[in-house]
Amino acid sequence: MRVVVLAGCSALLLFAASAAAEKAHFGYPNSIILIGHSGGTGYGSDPNRPGADAIENSWATGTNPVVDSVYLRILAQNAGIRNHAVNSARDGAKIRDILGQAAGATRLKTKPELVLIQGMDNDITCSGDQAAHLADFKTTFTKVLRTLSRGLPNARIFVTSQLGRPLTYARAIQSVPDARQTQTGTGPCDLFDQAGNIALEHVSFLTQIIESYEHAEADVCAGYVHCRYDGGAMASGVDQLEYLGPDFSHLSISGHGWAAALAWSAIFDFADASAPVSQAARAGRTVTLSASADVGVSGIEYKLTAPKKKPAKWFTRYTKPLTLKHGWTLTWRAVDVNGNSEATHSLRG
Known about the structure:
Rossmann fold; elongated
């Protein structure tokens, strides 16, 4: 068993926590939602409906068995998720639009237990102040995760990197004149020169921009105990011409199947049905929390509620020992790396 003590002192006397107010959450989710852009709407993937969304083909929530979406893979193990898949992604969505989608997710009657986020693509620009663009993106993405964490405190959040890389995409379309022409020019992110050669300097420049956004997503995600970044799983995919739809910019049905497999390789291990275990150590007014889990601890989150006040609205990530004032109530729980959370414990000052 891997034990993680986030801030502790072994000389303190362990305190037995009281009965839980919130049940433990573990295993396969019973509901799922995608927020993001057209990469998840199935746009252009149906040959009979060019230029239209085909949600049934979505790598995330689709029902097409050929795709074998994340939703269908969960359904194969958990019938409880049937008909509880929502796709809120919208074509052309930028991170500010995705913030609105996140807010909408928190208002759903059936609360999503798994949130998939596919963002970033439409925010990337090859001109202007790159540092300012990136800072704005990171600030808004932080708001997205804060909104989800506060509005859906029991949900797992899975954030994807950008699918494929500019170099493998350029190689995939290089032999198709119509596709190549859409990426030809002298701009810093144009992938081909006028002779049809891959512009390696431009490819490198665009790749660096993409990776800076991915690093921002990973950094923000790491600050939330229920969030997992895919670790570059989507980015590691090698683009193939067959994965592209007629516009060469969106995924075909086989492309969505490709994306689903990449996402599934990095997502939470839902088969892990054991919750982490935490404990509190008290010395006077100081309370130290620690936790352990077979798979590793993502973190501990807590609430502090003043006497005769309503319970605190949301959890805060635990980073150091806490001062528990007289009459105040401390509520906490541990979360493991698979998003499993134990039942909450409470301690009164």
